[in-house]
Amino acid sequence: MHSSANIFAFLLIIVGFITVRARNIPPFLKICHRNDPNLNECVKQSVNSLRPYLKTGIPALQIPPCEPLRVPQIEISQAVGPISITSTYTDIEVQGGTNFTLKSVKIDIDKDRVRLKLYLPRLEMIARYNMNGRIMLLPITGNGLARGNFTDIEVIATVQGERYQSQKTGEIHYRVVDFYVDFDVGNANIYLDNLFNGDGTLSNAMNLFLNDNWKVVAAEIKPALENTVSDIFKTFSNKIYSKFPLDTLLPP
Predict the structure, then answer these.
(1) What's the N-to-C CA distance of the chain in angstroms?
(2) What is the pTM for the complete model shown?
(3) Dmax (CA) of the chain
(4) CA 39 to centroid of chain Cα atoms
(5) CB within 8 A of 42, min separation 6: which ones?
(6) Radius of gyration for the chain, computed over Cα atoms and rounded to the nearest angstrom
(7) Which domain holds residue 50?
(8) CATH number for the domain including 147?
(9) pLDDT 10s digits, 142-182
(10) Hey, is 141 helix, strand or coil?
(11) What burial letters (b/e) apply to 42-72, b meaning 16+ CB within 10 Å?
(12) What is the number of structural domains in the chain?
């Protein structure tokens, strides 16, 4: 789900940028008005119209290419319940993130809140991993190549922002303070290469166990993944928002 953070960031950035005055935005962005009674639907249409640009990126909005989507590093530390793992993933590449369906957008301007519902038919991930710990009392250790296929992903994300006065400009800006995500994966298939120092028998047995019990494993590490997604999202989005006053993103 690492790619979801970047997709969410893209969507919320678009929510802001589509309302910027025409002289400040790329010509391919559909303009939506703050007081439009159909603002949610307008935003949804705007995002859908930008879908073709996602694969190669949108330099004007500082959106990197999303096929594949590259994430330098993710660290997960889980030590509660039957899962006790410390793992690091590097050189992450994710395919399929631009094939999302934006099912709904709900914007509450007064509360600085955005709620998104998305559907992702398939995500394919490849990364370098380093892992050590226990899964349901079974030891697991290894480093090498990790592959994962995830299908039928339903996502609900709520983004909470706040307004603040910039010390540099004296103007009111917007920033993301909280990001809540709930995702449901229909099916998953993963493979970790070089487990147990390359012991083929143990490695195959553990990979079989992980795929047979992926729902249990996913449920246990979900809080750690949600925190990781939240941190990535807030950092990415706030770099953009800090550059533009709120009256530029949402003109009166």
Answers:
(1) 36
(2) 0.81
(3) 65
(4) 23
(5) 18, 30, 32, 33, 36
(6) 20
(7) 2-249
(8) 3.15.10.30
(9) 999 999 999 999 988 898 989 999 888 788 888 889 888 88
(10) strand
(11) bbbbbbeebeebbeeebeebebeebebbebe
(12) 1
